[in-house]
Amino acid sequence: MKRLGLILLLWAWSGLLWAAPFVVKDLSIESEESAYYLNARIDYRLTPEVEEALSNGVPLILKVQLEVGKVWRDFWEGNPLSRTLRFQIRYHALTELYRVVNMQTGEEQNFVTQDAALYALGDMGRLPLVSQADLVPGEAYQLRLRADLEIESLPLPLQPLAYLGRGWRLTTGWTQWPLQP
Amino acid sequence: MAPSTLSRLRLGGLSVALLLILLLVTLHLMSSAVQNSAELSRYFVPLLVINLAGMVVLIGLITYNSIRLIRQYLRHSAGSRLTLRMVAIFIVISLTPVGVVYFYSFSFLQGGIDSWFDVRIDQAMEDARELAQASLDLNQRLWLKYTEQQLLSITDSSESALSLTIAELRQQSGALELSLTDLNGQIIAYSNAVASELAPSKPDDFIMQQLREGSSYVGLAREKDELMIRVAVEDPLGRPFIMQGLYPASDRVSALSEKLELAYNRYKELSFLRQSLKRNFSLTLFMVLMFAVLSAIWAAFFSARRMVAPITNIAAGTRAVADGDYDRQLPVPRAKDELAFLVTSFNAMTRRIGQARDQADRSQREVEGQRAYLETVLGRLSSGVLTFDAEHRLRTTNPAAEKILGSNLQRLIGSPVQSLALASPVLRQFAEGLQAPLRQTQEEWRGEVTLFGGEGRKVLICRATPFAQPDGPNGHIVLFDDVTALIRAQRDAAWGEVARRLAHEIKNPLTPIQLSAERLRHKYLKKMPEKDAEVLDRATHTIVQQVEAMKTMVNDFSEYARPPQMEVKPLHLDKLIEEVVDLYRGNKAVRFKVELTAEQSRVEADTLRIRQVVHNLVKNAVEAMEGQKQAQVEVSSKVVSRDEHPYYEMRVRDNGPGFNESMIQHLFEPYVTSKPKGTGLGLAIVKKIVEEHGGIIWAENCGTGACMVMQLPMLVDLALEEREA
User: Is A58 touching B (CB cutoff 8 A)?
Assistant: First the structure.
């Protein structure tokens, strides 16, 4: 049993090691017209395993979770913002295009290269967060952001491998950013 | 051990059965997660971990069982060999089909999945894609050429003119969108089929980069499920223009390409997922195999133990019975099979053996009780009892027999009567006396046997009675009593009567005889002539002297025959002895040695009579030393135990010639004396007085000299002692 526990620990640790490829960059929160907007770049770097799946037509869902809440809040207190955004990227071999779909709006974009598609996916310009009225002035708030490759959305045969194998646990992890009304 | 084995097996079996059910459920869920359940897929890893943990537990159980079984086998424990053999058979029987099924399942799985993705289908799909692309390429090249020609046809320079030209060109070409930009992407002119679209779709950076590098771009685009051809060209004339056009593919081509793209993408995706699918199925199949194998092995252990347990119990029970434990009852298996019948029969057998043993024990206890009772009765009998079997071997004896015969007869049990003769002279005489009666097998014999030994002559009245033995011919019971004392008492009584009569008859005429003799002397002595007077004097003197002697003798007779009238009181005998011996110390010819070690001991006695005894014994010893040089009389006392009762023992020992062996037997009888002047009544009176005090006295030769030993019962009455105090 001890050995099994050790293996599981190593497996979890290796998963953490692979958490590096997604990075949040150039994040800023701007206040305009009584609302807060997010400007950020998420650098999506795919591992060879994920790239191979993508190039073989497997659709990938990238999930971005956004939360705005008090730094010190009671556990029963809700967050002013708790939002999940999903984007799909898929390669179409016939047209040789990468199609990016904003699953919230259904908006589609085609890109000739994977880099361009990922760049467009990571570009989160002027994303509305909360209105100032939702926040208590003087209270310390923080924005928590996390971007993942959603394993649950992968085709079923791939999911066990994604859970157990290397190179599939792609995430930025939770990142906190201060938000002072 | 036995009852707990089955219950432990049942409990363990239930636990492992629950574990197996859990594993089966998790395996089923895993299988569902792999195949078609998106909900379960997220639990794949926890399910796998639970499964692995369960299997580790199973492996642990199997390892434990294996080690235990091997140890039992090496220890040659009961049932271990049978268990090992059954486990091996079960494992072989169960693993063979499981292995075969796994092998073919695995082959089918690998082959089956691969067969879906046949090489020819792969190639066909690729060919279809290339064909479609080739077809679209041709179209794209045409639109590229056409766009370049359109750009060349533009000669205007003003923005308004260019806008009009672009709109016209778009209409001519049927493009969905046509725009003219500078090299930085700034729009110079733009026209769209949909009037509301005010801005062109911006080409991505890759296209702009390609244009900057001097290459035109043509590619497919899909918007709103509609296939289009995107073209971006630089002005071949070198003007800073870039023309971009978005041309629709024909509906037919668009529809077909969409279908093809969907099919191709799906096929490509499935093809890619093939390895994962195979891996997942293989993993699940392997887990199923492991589950089956481990379950089979554990079931083999469980079944073997369960089947062997009753046999092991029977083996242990048999061993217990062999060791004499008849109370062992084996647990009866639930199943009503042959084993259950065997165990039930075994239990019935041990129960019956136990009952028989209990019965035997009871009988033995009864026999022992009877024997103890008989021994007690025999032990308390004053008569000697001996039994002899048909071969005249001594079988039983009692303490009275040993006491009478003065030998330890216990050690002679089992010896034939002839062997008794070798043990001691007394026993030899006794055995000789019995040999003839023992040969009589029918009639009872009564007779007298006289023995001569260290304690003197003994007369035994014997009776030998044949008795039937349970296992053979008649044995004999010999009963005998020591009647020596009785005979002696009768003789003493006769002597006493004789003495009393003799004294009475003799004493009466003695005084007249003496008076007559003195009268004769007094009357005629002076009157007679001197010569006659001398005769008369001598004769009368003799008469008077002899009459005196006869008077003394008659007084002694009277004393001997006198009935006992004692005044007993507690007496420190040591002190009395000291006083008596002191009277004799004036005799310098004899040296006295006194060792009295029973100072505190007292006896209940008549002081005068006991003093007479001590006087007599000391006097006898002194007189026996007369004329002997270095004469010594040793007087000692001590406390001895006789029949668990304390006795005061006094010994008077001299260093004279000792007693004549033949004389010792009759020493205490009247008229037996070694002294010329003795009446022979001294020791008889001593013996009488001692016996009147409940004691005994005997004479023996001890080393050099004679020894007289007197033993009197000691006073142990505490109440009396306290009264005295």
Answer: yes
Contact B434, B478 (CB under 8 A): yes
**CA of residue B438 relative to chain centroid, distance:** 52
- Report which secondary-structure segment, H or E, holds B30: helix B2-35
**Cβ B53–A1 below 8 Å, yes or no?**
yes
- Rounded Cα distance between B181 and B242, Å, is 5
Give, rounded to a whole angstrom, the gap between the first and last alpha carbons of chain A: 51
List, as own/partner pairs, every contact residues B66-75 make where C-beta atoms lie below 8 angstroms and the sequence separation is at least 24, other chains included: B66/B301, B69/B301
What Cα–Cα distance (Å) separates residue B651 from each residue in B257, B581, B702?
Answer: 150, 13, 11
Range ranked top by mean pLDDT from A14-28, A43-57, B310-324? A43-57
Q: Name the band, by pLDDT with cuts 50, 70 and 90, for residue B38.
A: low
Indicate whether B411 pLDDT > 90: no
Question: Could you count the other beta carbons within 10 Å of the beta carbon of residue B673?
Answer: 17
Query: Chain A contact for B226, CB < 8 A?
Result: no
Q: Does B322 touch chain A (CB under 8 A)?
A: no
Q: Does A10 touch chain B (CB under 8 A)?
A: no
Residue A151: burial class (beta carbons within 10 Å; 0-12, 13-18, 19+): buried
Q: Do A160 and B53 touch (CB under 8 A)?
A: no
pLDDT (0 to 100) of residue B339: 80
| The pLDDT of residue B36 | 64
Band (pLDDT 50/70/90 cuts) for residue B718 is: low
Query: Average pLDDT of chain B?
Result: 82
Contact A95 B221 (CB under 8 A): yes
Query: Three-state secondary structure along chain A?
Result: CHHHHHHHHHHHHHHHHCCCCEEEEEEEEEEECCEEEEEEEEEECCCHHHHHHHHCCCCEEEEEEEEEEECCCCCCCCCCEEEEEEEEEEEECCCCEEEEEECCCCCEEEECCHHHHHHHHHEEEEEEEEEHHHCCCCCCEEEEEEEEECHHHCCCCHHHHHHHCCCCCCECCCEEEEECC
Flag if A155 and B273 touch (Cβ within 8 Å). Answer: yes
Phi-psi category of B653—alpha, beta or left, where left has phi over 0 and alpha has psi -120 to 50? beta
Interface test with A, best of B41, B63, B215, B268 (most A CBs within 10 A): B41
Q: Would you state the structure tokens that stand for residue B627, as one six-digit string?
A: 């004329």
Q: Please tell me whether the overall predicted TM-score, pTM, comes out greater than 0.80 for this model.
A: no
Residues B212, B395: Cα–Cα separation, whole Å = 139
Best probe of the A interface among B205, B218, B284, by most A CBs < 10 A, is B205
Q: What residue has token string 């079931």?
A: B299
Residue of A nearest to B284 (CA): A160
pLDDT (average), residues B416-440: 82
d(CA B276, nearest CA chain A) in Å: 6
pLDDT of residue B719 exceeding 60, the answer is no
Note whether ipTM > 0.85 here: no
- Closest A-chain CA to B227: A95
